[in-house]
Design a protein that fits this description.
It contains 11 helices and 9 strands. By secondary structure, it is α/β, with parallel strands linked by helices. Strand 5, helix 5 and strand 6 form a beta-alpha-beta unit. The longest helix is centred in the first third of the chain and has 16 residues.
Length: 298
């Protein structure tokens, strides 16, 4: 373990929690948050920190029951859980902004958009349905998707905008990335649910298709959604008892805040550079001692 000379070891303070468990949602950006937070809490604060992989929806149940202490990246995909646990039962509390703005959308490769500029308006998508057709959606364009647990209104958007498309899940984020790279090599047309921040966006040139603009309330009824996804200030959530009695551990997680560039840097180290999560966290932390120092309880 490497102790950060600029930060110094922190007093863990009074806490009812000997062990802390952090949620790891199934995408590498969320993993990047956790590996850095865990590394600092273990090396700088001498805390026992473990992790559990689960979707956002399941994470809120676990936060409510106390099986986990913190979720460091929520995209707002479980509004009913937030209403129940945060607003009504008050067993889960808002832990503040992660500092990263998330955005989901439909994306095509730039090489296809350059050749067919009007594809970037959803009103013209049916014109290109055959270009995006696959064996999974015969007679229709294929809108690629990732992990089925991700927040998605795509089936409703397709239906309500009368698009001749159907969704097809590729599974894990890594499988989606592999498919993107394969398509780029052969300049194959494709359209996919995708998001920012994502380290791959610096490697592959993807362009967003314009959907009807997001307006407050346009996603309230999942069956009637016919609008774009909003920009989302990604939030942290903590178990309420831990937030109150977790001492310096809880204070650190409330303080934990970084940028899209920070997250992408660590995510790239884990995926493209194939570093171990701990080594990636160590490298980033040692290069950003001032930022880490700002997270540590005073």
């Amino acid at each position: 373990m490497v102790v950060l000379s600029a930060c110094g070891a922190a007093d863990t303070g009074s806490s009812d929690y000997d062990k802390i468990t952090l949620v790891v949602p199934p995408w590498v950006g969320a993993e990047a948050n956790v590996v850095v937070a865990q590394y600092v809490m273990q090396t700088e604060m001498d805390l026992d920190v473990s992790t559990k992989q689960m979707s956002e929806t399941v994470a809120f149940d676990a936060l409510n029951s106390g099986k986990v202490e913190a979720l460091l990246e929520d995209w707002g995909g479980a509004p009913k859980k937030i209403q129940t646990y945060v607003e009504e039962k008050k067993t889960v509390v808002d832990g503040g902004s992660l500092g990263v703005v998330g955005h989901i959308g439909w994306y095509v490769p730039k090489y296809f958009a350059d050749a067919h500029p009007d594809v970037l308006d959803y009103k013209n998508l049916n014109k290109y349905a055959k270009d995006f057709e696959s064996q999974e959606t015969p007679g229709k364009g294929t809108l690629l998707q990732g992990d089925p647990s991700y927040t998605s209104y795509d089936a409703a958007i397709i239906k309500n905008l009368k698009l001749n498309f159907a969704t097809h899940s590729l599974g894990a984020e890594s499988t989606q990335i592999t498919e993107f790279r394969k398509n780029f090599k052969t300049k194959k047309p494709f359209i996919s649910y995708w998001w920012q921040p994502q380290w791959l966006n610096a490697e592959l040139d993807l362009v967003e298709v314009k959907l009807p603009p997001y307006k407050e309330g346009c996603q309230d009824d999942p069956k009637k959604v016919a609008c774009a996804y909003p920009d989302t200030d990604l939030k942290k959530y903590l178990n309420a008892d831990f937030a109150e009695k977790g001492g310096d551990a809880a204070e650190f997680l409330k303080n934990f805040k970084w940028t899209t560039e920070d997250q992408n840097a660590v995510a790239k180290m884990i995926t493209k550079d194939q570093m171990s999560p701990e080594d990636a966290a160590k490298k980033w932390v040692e290069a950003n001692k001032d930022k880490v120092d700002g997270w540590l309880p005073k």
